[in-house]
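Task 17 of the worksheet. Students: predict the tertiary structure of the chain below and write it out as structure tokens. Keep your answer in the requested format; marks are given for formatting as well as content.
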Amino acid sequence: MSKNKDQKRKVQLATRAKNESFRFQVEYSRKQKGIDIMGMEQNLTAELDAICQNCLTEDLLDLAKIVEGIRKELGFEQEAAKCSLNGTLVPFILGITTTQPNSTTYVPDIFTAQQPLQVTIAYDNDIRNQVVNWMKANGYDISSYLGQPLLKLNNVRIAIRRVLKS
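Model answer:
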């Protein structure tokens, strides 16, 4: 019986450490980038709480790493207006989105929606397949859903859409 309690306790401690580390990384990134969130501190705290409660910390860090890797290695930027995480603070701080939300553009409760969290990112039609190939080459599991590439992380499903520019 005590062995089970010890294992449960270890899992609780590991989860708590992971969540504290995530909060630190977000705050450190915010300070390093000089992002001012004056008046939106409560929104940031609520987002961080929802992300930690829904076990989305690792997945958001992975998504940030993917977006940054594509930006650095391929030189491609995602279509900013098409990301479903626009209007949230944590993805902006982590570099997933490029538009800083303010009090009028802020979208609350994205991270409390159904699980797994459904996220959409988009790239130009000409480069989307190169982005998907980069993800495959870097060890990410890509499947397809309704003809669109889908990246499956633990608690997040990321649809990679194409944008046709005229």
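Marker's comment: The helical segments are 2-33, 41-53, 57-74, 89-94, 128-137. The beta strands are 117-124, 142-145, 148-152, 156-163.
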